[in-house]
Design brief:
Large ribosomal subunit protein mL54, 2 domains, Ribosomal_mL54, 0% strand, mainly alpha, 82 residues, 2 helices
């Protein structure tokens, strides 16, 4: 990403139209520096997965095994229909 353009797609002060409050003002976009650093990595799956692996290895491994099992089950179901 080009750092000269900034990280955000909205200019500061833009009304976000999220419709999350019944009453009151709608949320407004902030300056990029006002958001926490982890926010910019939240859409990067590899980065988030690596961070999760460092924090809680056993839960990360359990998730990996679950993904492998689901993939194997889908593959077996597909092959049984052929």
């Amino acid at each position: 990403m080009n750092e000269s353009l900034g990280k955000s797609t909205c200019k500061a002060g833009t009304i976000l139209n999220l419709k999350i409050r019944k009453a009151g003002d709608e949320p407004v976009a902030l300056e990029d520096s006002e958001y926490p650093e982890w926010l910019w990595d939240s859409l990067n799956k590899e980065k988030m997965d690596e961070d999760f692996k460092k924090v809680d290895f056993m839960r990360w491994r359990k998730r990996q095994i679950g993904k492998q099992n689901a993939s194997r089950i889908k593959n077996n179901n597909f092959l049984s229909q052929v």
